[in-house]
From TrEMBL, chains A, B:
The lineage of its organism: Bacteria, Pseudomonadati, Bacteroidota, Sphingobacteriia, Sphingobacteriales. It comes from the Bacteria. Transmembrane segments: none annotated. It comes from Pelobium manganitolerans. One of its GO terms (cellular component) is cytosol. This is Rrf2 family transcriptional regulator. PROSITE patterns: HTH_RRF2_2 (PS51197). GO terms for molecular function: DNA-binding transcription factor activity.
DNA sequence: AAAATAAAAGATAAAAAACTCTTTTATTAT
DNA sequence: ATAATAAAAGAGTTTTTTATCTTTTATTTT
């Protein structure tokens, strides 16, 4: 188990990749993204189709087409990507799988989970997709393999 | 996605249940545990077989048999249960799925993940299986549904 | 020794997640 | 108009996770 599903890992890496490639205003094709983030091409295509439908990334068909982002989408918080792919299970609901998470009849780890889930949520809320392009451009951070 | 796999959720709920039932020294059968934590009986059986092989719970066959825990197992940290079932993927390795998590070529969220994973790990290290029996006995906390 | 009990083990099945391949649709450039 | 391009959509397959059912083994009680 890791924090996110593989699908979500690909999704986040992909939006980061698109973000840092879209600064120059151009679009980037699925093949380039897939190799750029070391993900299976057709699987990633499905993921991006979904993100595109939800308006998290933009896309254009045909020659010079591809995926891109605008000012507005770059400012969206990471949590939007995570929720679109993995849902909100990380932030709401009982960490031990009880049907409801409540103060009234909490599971033994309720208090501990409250802290952790808040941490995760806040980090995803306060970071936005575009926040990481600079380091990527500088080669300080990495999305591949 | 939630933090733990369902298997792991059942495992944690089960050890908590056994712990709070074993205080009186007696053993508790799989059926009772399964209904006590609202889990599928045979699936839970598999999970407990595994935990038993690893020494995280004790078991005895035959009449008056069942699962139980001793002083030593009650003191084991929760992280032992989680690692046994879900592995250490929550604490080590890149949160974005890169093959290695390193300071040298980190993913964009490396610093953020470091904090979160440390939080999760520390909470699982500093809590032990037996820490929650009292509240369970008092009916303050709950493991069912 | 025989019967009863309860976990262990084995074998299968269903559902979800991860991944692949092919065809269609929209757009652009010639 | 036609050809080329690239995403969208459709239709699978494979693998992993979750779950069920049956048989075997160990232990205890009678
Ligand atoms: S009840 Fe389990 S986390 Fe709140
Ligand atoms: S490289 Fe991604 S978490 Fe460290």
């Amino acid at each position: 188990m890791s924090i996110f599903s593989k699908t979500c890992e690909y999704a986040i890496r992909a939006v980061f990749f698109i973000a840092h490639r879209t600064e120059s205003g151009d679009r980037v094709g699925i093949k380039e993204i897939a190799t750029g983030i070391s993900s299976p091409e057709h699987f990633l295509a499905k993921i991006l189709q979904d993100l595109s439908r939800r308006g998290i990334v933009k896309s254009a068909k045909g020659p010079n087409g591809g995926f891109y982002m605008d000012e507005q989408t770059l400012r969206r918080p990471l949590v939007d990507v995570v929720e679109a792919v993995d849902g909100n299970g990380l932030f709401v609901g009982c960490g031990l799988g009880l049907v409801s998470c409540s103060e009234k009849k909490p599971c033994p780890l309720h208090a501990e989970f409250a802290v952790i889930r808040k941490n995760i949520h806040q980090m995803l809320v306060k970071t936005s997709i575009g926040d990481f392009t600079e380091d990527l451009n500088l080669g300080i951070t990495n999305l591949k393999k």
